[in-house]
Each structure stands twice: as structure tokens, then as C-alpha cells.
Amino acid sequence: MKTILLHVFEDSGLESRLQVALDLTRGHGGHLTCVQPTTQFAPMSFGPLGGDFVTGINFEDMDAAERAHRERVEQRLKEEDVSWDWQTGLGDPATLLTERSRLADLVIVSQSYGKRNAGDEPLPIAGDVAVHAHCAVMVVPVENDSYDCLGAMVVAWNGSAEAAKAVRLALPMLKMAGDVHLVTVGDDDVDFPHIAASTFLSRHGVSTVLHELKGKGNEASDIIGEFAAEQGAAALVMGAYGHSRLRETLFGGVTKNLLNDTKIPLVMGH
Fold this sequence. Notes:
The structure is a single chain. The protein has helices at 14-28, 59-78, 93-100, 126-132, 161-169, 171-176, 195-203, 219-230, 245-251, 254-261, and strands at residues 3-7, 31-38, 45-46, 51-52, 83-90, 106-110, 136-140, 153-156, 180-185, 209-213, 235-239, 266-269. The chain is an alpha/beta fold. It starts with a strand and ends with a strand.
């Protein structure tokens, strides 16, 4: 992972995703690009008399807060032994990160709290970024305070195009991992349906341990999460939204459940 994008926004998840980004950048000898969505707006006027646009939002204060936040984070980065730069941009954060991901290897965002209703919780953009980004996307739980590049990794494999893409995009991380566990979940008695993924990885010098776990339906997310915890995995690699995203939103699914409940970083591809 040589070019890593980090979503910079002053929320309760910033410290965790910043630390994970620093660990990854150091571990892979890469470059960290901090992407800060900005609220700066050009002057506007509306109405037949050309009067100024009236709003209750004080954009000058917001701009000052953003600049102060940038200065604090930049001062922190100057004390770290990583190569980095800073980019700002207008627009929706998920769209901005997606646009900037065209020549990146990894985008790092935070897991949203969901129903925990914290006032400074990370923006719920992980799903949108995972679906539309042009590279791998890492979703970091707020509780994570580091990332071990040499730690074990778990790959949730179901043979889908999304899972295959996630494996390809995460290949640099899988090559560095101490152990790689390929996991399938199902009730059918089949002979290691993940052998194709294992063969692909072996050709890239990645040895894998194959696991076939029993379960069905939405139980899969709990089974995978528990397995990853048992292995002490540093991250879980999986395809994002193997079914239609609307279907998962309405009826639930592995992607949705893990995005909400994961205790370790997710590395996703779509």
C-alpha cells in the first residue's frame, strides 16, 4: 500500500483512523494523503434585488475551525516518520474520497456508531465509499488504536466478484500478514469452495489456511466476526455488498452487519 488516503474530519474516530493510517504507511513504506472536506463557499446572492444570501450558518467560524484543526493534525504529522501531504476539497465527503481514490491503494474511513447517538460520531460514509471507491477501503472501528501489519488476516470468501476484487486489492496487506485464513460459511457439504482463492494467493507467495464454518443466512456475519476474534486477526478482508445494496439495507446482510458491529478493521472491495 504505497498511496493511502485518510479521511480527515474532527470527530471521535479521527485518532483511531489516523493511528491506523500511520502504522500502515510506516509498515508499507508508503505515502499518506490527508483528505479534508471543506465548508468553504464562494459568495452568493439571490433574489430580484441581488441581495445577499441570508443564512444562520457562520461560514467564517467554520472555516476558522477547519484551519485550526488542520494545523493541529499537521503538527502531529510533522512529529511522525512518514511521508505525507494534505488535500482539501469541496463537496460531500464520500464523493470527494471516491474521486481522490483513482490513483490510491487504500482509503481509510471510520465505522459509524449507528444507534449509539454520540454527538461527534464519525460520518456514516463507509458504505458509500466502499461501493464506489477505485481502490481498497479500510473501515476502522473507533476503539482501534493501532494496526499490526504483520498480524493475522482473515478473508471472508464466498466466490463472488466482490470478494475476488477485495482479495486482489488487499494483496499487499495479505503478503505482509503473518497468517492468512480463508473462511467460507455455509451449510452445504462442498470440498473447499475457496480453493480458487487459495491458489490465486499462493501464486503471489501468500500461504493460506482454509476454514469451512457452518452457518446460514445473516448468522454468517456473527460467525465470521467471532472467528476473526479467535484468531486475533488484525483485519478482515471481504467483498462489499455481494447482493444489491438496497436488499441489504432492507433485509440486512453480512456487509451491513459487519459494518455496524465489527471490532477489527474491515478491508473491503466492490
